[in-house]
Amino acid sequence: MAGSYQEWSTLSIEPEAYRIIEAPLCVESNWSGIDMAPQAMLRAGLAKTPAGRDTVSLPPADWRPERSTDGVLNPLQVREYTLNLADTVHEAMRSGRVPIVLGGDCTILLGCLLGMRRTRSARLFFLDGHMDFYAPEQSPTGETADMELGLAVGRGPEVLTEYGLGGPLVSENDTAVFGFRDEAIVEAIGGTNVRDSAMHCASLSDIRLGGFSNAVCGALAFLGESDPFWLHVDLDVLNPWEMPAVDYPMADGLRWGELYGVIRRCAATERLAGLDVTIFNPTFDWDGSVAQTIARVLTAALGLR
């Protein structure tokens, strides 16, 4: 169960229980501004007490975009960044902190899961407007941020899937995919649909048809009742009328209140090992209001103090 309203409405996390990790990675063929997101969210008031905030900062990517023979942009550099982020996430967990990783693009999920795997087995609640399940040869961009889910479950080149774990970063059987709405796009491009996997799938259409609360509870039930899980939050899961500051907007999407509800219920399970937040582009946030909304929703949903 995701917990009753009384259980998750009073949730709070003290400052000493979490660590904010800035991971301003942006693996794109053209600079977009996503690497400025961590600082923008923190300046907007994420985790309300800056003086007591436990924050670690990784550097942004400093390489030129180069496509490998299999079509992936900068795979060797992405692997190095993944390993460095994994070290930082692992250290936070080893210290008893819940890592809150601020991206950057969705590539950071790989380092988050690898860091978790160094501590325990991993399960994944994947909250994203896109499937991000392209194989390298299918990807329209070559960016690891549109194939990170596939890489995480072991589908892709060894340089980005093999980390000495004896298997993928996370099993398809331990992954719930929630909120995607790009099935028609994926089909048109010839990409692989997440429904052709062992993952639990709840598209936006599924959520609207079966009910939001039922969909959240179903995804959490799939992940089990005892094992910790990682939460990936790509802010393009939101309706662009609510969240315009993303690089690849699509029609429709969740509302802010629904995003709050998903995160809150995940946190209320007391099995949330950590989370990452990605794809906010401050260059589309001319007055800072989007950053302020992100900060308010995350702070409230996680009960941060």
TrEMBL record:
A single cellular component GO annotation: cytoplasm
Name of this chain's protein: Arginase family protein
CDD domains, A to Z: Arginase-like_1
Gene3D superfamilies in the record: Ureohydrolase domain (3.40.800.10)
Residue numbers spanned by region Disordered: 50-69
Any one Gene Ontology molecular-function term assigned to this protein's record: manganese ion binding
Protein family (similarity comment): Belongs to the arginase family.
Species assigned in the record: Oceanidesulfovibrio marinus
InterPro entries: Ureohydrolase (IPR006035), Ureohydrolase_dom_sf (IPR023696)
PANTHER family assigned to the protein according to its UniProt record, in alphabetical order: ARGINASE
Keywords in alphabetical order: Hydrolase, Manganese, Metal-binding
